[in-house]
Amino acid sequence: MAKESIRVVGAQENNLKNISIDIPHNRLVVISGISGSGKSSLAFNTIFMEAQRRYMETLSSYARQFIGNFDRPDVEHIEGLRPTISIDQKTISRNPRSTVGTLTEIYDYMRVLFARVGIPHCPDCKVVIEAQPSDQIIEKLFASFEGEKIKIVAPMFEKRKGEYRKELNQWKEDGYNRLIIDGKEVNLDEEEIKLERYVPHDIEIIIDRNLCERKNEPSIADSISLALDLAKGKLKIIGEKRIRTFSTKLVCSNCGLSVNEFNPRDFSYNTPVGACQLCKGLGKIPQIVPEKFVNLELSIAKGAIATTTKSLKYITYSGISVKNLNQITKENGFDIVTPFKDLTEEQQDLILYGSGKKTYKLKWSWGGDTTTWQGKGEYLTTWKGIIPLTMEGYYRINSLKRKEQLEKLMELSTCPDCEGKRLKPESLAVFFKGKNMAELNQLPIDKCSNFFKKVKLTQEEEIIAGPLLKEIKNRLSFLIEVGLHYITLNRAANELSGGEAQRTRLATQIGSKLQGVNYILDEPSIGLANRDNEKLLNSLMTLRDGGNTVIVVEHDEDTLRNADILIDLGPLAGDEGGEVLFSLEPKNITAKEAKTSLTAKYLLGLDEIPIPQKRRISDKFLELEGAEHNNLKKISVKFPIGCFIGVTGVSGSGKSSLIKDTLYPILVNKLLNGTQQVGKYKKLEGIEHLDKVVVINQSPIGRSSRSNPATYTKVLDHIRDLYARLPEALVRGYTKTRFTFNTKEGRCEACKGHGYNKIEMSLLPDVEVECEICKGRRYDDETLKVKFAKHSIADVLNMTVSRAKKVFENQPKINKILQTLSDVGLDYIRLGQPSTTVSGGEAQRIKLSRELSKTATGDTLYILDEPTTGLSFEDIKKLLVVLQRLVDKGNTIIIIEHNLDVIKTADHIIDLGPEGGEDQGGYLVGEGTPEEIILLENSYTGNALRSVLLNEKKEITLEKTEVFDRNLDPANFLHVRGATKNNLKNIDLDIPKEKLVVITGPSGSGKSSLAIDTL
After folding, report:
1. What is the predicted pLDDT for the residue at 252?
2. Is the pTM of this model over 0.90?
């Protein structure tokens, strides 16, 4: 029998204290605890890693040689493991070709839908392109030309080069003497035809001349049949007043454009068949930015163009010399010694973008005194401009390094050919119920879902596309259920936030309808408003009730309270965490658990984040008028100076558009002389109340292993100063540069201070192997002999913040910075932890600690986006103390947040909505104190906040979706429906689980098709 639970015995990964625990199958299991308590160590580093390792062991040795070995987690043993899928915030694809549509496979279903029942149109004429049988062609011919004299013509070649001597002779032998060549009628019996070989030609055979009357229908039908045979399905009718093209294939009857039968590949921008030819399916192309490309203060002769060589003789990539450019400017009445800023706009445009069809006689020369051959001469050319010529050079060069150098002067802009739609014109001209593929993918998911719900299929379409439509509608509904109604299917995966990416993958898994799987999720509630959180919980229940075990690392109170089993780790972080405090149903938590568990204290109401007794009031404001970026509806907002301001609203309501895309770039440009792109607005007043603006977001603190919390917060500088003052260092003559792993003086030269060596695997990902010389410590042995309190510099980098505080408690400069890290709840983080392994929430708090360690000036505006990511109740309590301390010093804080414990402590709330998306989002629902916001009837924030401020019990409405007894295994059978692989005849089959099942039959009966190719 299958195990009823996952049994973990003796887990010691990271800070776990040899813990053992049973996690029941087919339950929603939530793992809680403060940051650094060991939640991820148990869920991801132990359970998931062991499941992944076991899966890898089932692969062939041939496959494993490409994947490499997975280390066994530090655990005695684990029993009852099912196939396990991790849905975290980091494993989303960063490929620009990956979108929400491709991740959820909705786009794949839509490609098949359009290929099967889409209606092709001519991309130029916009008329429907139809394949017509000959009898339909005859009827349309009479409808258009009856009573007219007509020529029935077979189009043989269109715009094709060649002499066609062989073809002309053959047609003459076959009796086809009358032709139309390049628009002129000729008779092969009367004249000898000689065609130029390298000139494109149009050649048509005149099959018949006739009067279009019903009495002549038999002869006309014969001629049409003959023309279609000769021209491979094409036909042209030349009447007295018009010309029409017909085809038994997909050909535009108006202009004659021919297209092949469409298949799903034609709607994929990841294949050359379907992708736009210019942008190769990316929707964007790199374009040189003139502001980066040209130094306005310099002249062309002095190197105003960024790609001018050091000798000032040539402009790299463009194929033009400065001397030639001087010839061109002189012929247009100006020179290259004038500073670029002093040239007229027309003169600047001529240099950058060319002078049209005007030709120039330019001189060229090659070689010199030291070369074995020389040459010079003249050539005629038009002037395209430096930017177009440089772009041509960019596409010509193969060197990745040279391309990257030029890309620093570029930005991605919308492709002018496909207008960002990624597909070729023929594919964009195929419509399903009035919409093409790009239009559907540009709709917000809720609108896209409504479109497909309203679709009415004909009886024939239902047979062809019914199942496809059902799958598309289901998967769209799953995205809506996890709170992603406001995003579009063409949203790039690398533009999704961590929470959005995770919920996208969650919707994909719900759509896959797998059974008997362990799902492990990392804070799926990130970025969700209270209303959307209920939908997320319902989705988790759906996943569970499909016969799966759902393990969630989470801090959200609603998720904790609605868990089947709540496992709490702690009691504290780092070395003081890693123990199982309890594993219970939430309703069974008592005061006994609260003695050691901070989570239990908050859930039982024995501890809480207090509501401020007094809200700050300001008479100074930052007033933004007429903001209309993205979905903002020309709103005007007042931000009180010197206050703690919360910006709230459901997902997609316009919070980021208002703060990150409009307010912040305005202030950066005004206060810090920035050049950021600003969302559309009318005016901003009150800037004089601020001296600087700081955004503290979740972007990485560094992008290499050399960057870490110690380097980012500058505490390592002070530690290096300390080590350089030690007697041992002074005797050896060491300076502070000896104690950095970025210089040759003290680092391990075997690994260049990385602590590991990178092995290049050619076509495979590089492998990092711990350095055998320094054993990952980064420094050489001599440097490590210098110690403070018996600790080398490598030991210090391996310390947690809490440990380092004790070691350096008598070092004020060092301890001040370490204390700020502790204040924001990062006691557990190691000083030398590579920045590439720091989560978004941790990165944000490290940035905040750096700001706290700086000398306060007041009058600073701090902008934070979801700073509670990854934080427990206790962590949030600590964070709020720090933030309120900043405001008490005269600073202003704007925080984009959904967490009610944070929102309730704000002095002022700006609530956007009421819904998300283009139509119903972007309005100012209300602004004021929390007490004023709860009076608004149309505010989701107000409704949720009411229960917190008035201490009302909040009820979560969960849908009943159970499909089986969760005390039993997911199902007793594998259900196979409609198997048609190879010769299988649409068979349905129920295969019992936990049985020895034998599939029999004669050779070729379909055994392997069922067992291997299907199952």
Report:
1. 76
2. no
